[in-house]
Design a protein that fits this description.
The protein is an alpha+beta fold. It has 5 helices and 14 strands. It holds the Pfam family Scramblase.
Length: 247
């Protein structure tokens, strides 16, 4: 059971550029009901190569989505098109700043965890072991967007972006070179105005001078989820409407 997930993860994350599209959900648009988040992943040719799916956690999870909005705890799985879990991004309840942990299934144990039935992906209840490989931590700051990227306890990258910027360059902490970049792309105005749907471009090694290993690329991918929840999910804020991203 070692082959497909590792091979697919390597394929997805060794591409120079991928697009990550947050799926527009009708119940969110028309009834302001928060559903589990879904993202579609595409290569440069526009071929879908994976999904990122927020796990459902029963009735309590549904209540938390409505009351806590983007501050809610979540676990989002990256899966390939065969339903194998490649990695997971987990975040506890957000208090001021978000702290995401990234883990990968142990020895291929995430194989076949999802199946595509009734025109949607469903996760089975089988248990599996995973290994934590890194973190993406939002940092306290005034009117800036800052994140620190950690692999196995060691800081390797930082994001520092202006408050209104849609570009999030990731810089190596050792030499200051840009090793990756997340960019929020403009969708059509209806999507931008009435939903949290959107498209992100993730580019590795944009300057051609810095290559990241697979574990670091997993952490970099998780920044897309963190940035989407923290900075661009304006329609999914908690019921108070309070936006703590200024602080």
């Amino acid at each position: 059971m070692n082959g497909p997930p590792t091979d697919t993860l390597s394929y997805i994350l060794t591409l120079p550029r991928i697009s990550i599209k947050r799926v527009v959900q009708e119940w969110n648009v028309f009834f302001d009901i928060q559903q589990t988040v879904q993202y579609e992943i595409y290569n440069e040719e526009g071929v879908q190569i994976g999904m990122m799916l927020e796990r459902k956690t029963g009735k309590l999870g549904a209540i938390s989505r409505q009351l806590d909005g983007t501050d809610r705890p979540f676990c989002i799985d990256l899966i390939d098109m065969q339903g194998n879990i490649l990695l997971s991004v987990t975040r506890p309840f957000k208090v001021i700043r978000s702290h995401c942990k990234i883990s990968i299934p142990y020895n291929g144990m995430g194989n076949g965890m999802y199946s595509f039935t009734d025109n949607r992906w469903k996760k089975n209840d089988r248990k599996y072991e995973s290994i934590e490989i890194g973190e993406c931590n939002e940092k306290w700051t005034f009117f800036k967007k800052k994140y620190e990227l950690v692999e196995n306890g060691r800081l390797f990258g930082k994001i520092k972006s202006e408050y209104l910027s849609w570009e999030f360059p990731i810089f190596d902490v050792n030499d200051g070179s840009k090793c990756a970049q997340v960019t929020r792309k403009m969708s059509n105005w209806q999507i931008e105005m009435f939903s949290d749907g959107g498209i992100y471009s993730l580019e590795f090694n944009p300057n051609g001078s810095h290559s990241l290993d697979l574990n670091k690329r997993c952490v970099v991918l998780s920044t897309v989820v963190a940035i989407d929840f923290d900075q661009f999910s304006l329609h999914s804020k908690d019921e108070s409407g309070f936006d703590n991203s200024y602080y």
